[in-house]
């Protein structure tokens, strides 16, 4: 497992992108934004994860994932 620290308000995934790992949130939050970019659908917090469906099915995500403040994400890419 690798740890990657993202800057505040950094985009992690955009619609159509196929992630190469599953993300686990260790600190702070990640906002899931609708495809139009107008609405935050949900805030994922410590203990949450995302990216598993697109990784397992090798398809792009439908949403944008943007960090909140002070984020540490752990990924299962093995890289």
General description of the model:
The chain is mainly beta. The protein contains 1 helix and 8 strands, in the order E-E-E-E-E-E-H-E-E. The strands form 2 sheets. A 4-stranded antiparallel sheet has the order 1-8-3-6, with no helix packed on it. A 4-stranded antiparallel sheet has the order 2-7-4-5, with no helix packed on it. A hairpin with a 6-residue loop joins strand 4 and strand 5. The longest helix has 6 residues, at 52-57.
What keyword list fits this structure?
8 strands, 44% strand
Our measurement of the CA-to-CA distance between the termini, rounded to an integer number of angstroms, reads 8 Å
Low-pLDDT residue intervals, each spanning 5 or more residues: none
* Outline: globular
| Widest sheet, order of strands | 1-8-3-6
Number of alpha- plus pi-helical segments: 1
Strand tally, please? 8
Measured as a percent range, the helix fraction is: under 10%
Beta strand %: 35-45%
Structural class: mainly beta
- Round the Cα radius of gyration to an integer and report it: 12 Å
Largest sheet: 4 strands, antiparallel
> Helix and strand string, N-terminal first?
EEEEEEHEE
Rounded mean pLDDT is: 87
């Amino acid at each position: 497992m690798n740890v990657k620290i993202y800057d505040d308000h950094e985009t992690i995934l955009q619609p159509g992108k196929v992630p190469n790992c599953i993300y686990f949130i260790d600190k702070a939050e990640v906002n899931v934004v609708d495809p139009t970019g107008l609405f935050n659908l949900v805030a994922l917090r410590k203990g949450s994860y995302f990216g598993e469906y697109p990784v397992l099915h090798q398809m792009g995500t439908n949403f944008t994932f943007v960090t909140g403040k002070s984020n540490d994400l752990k990924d299962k890419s093995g890289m």
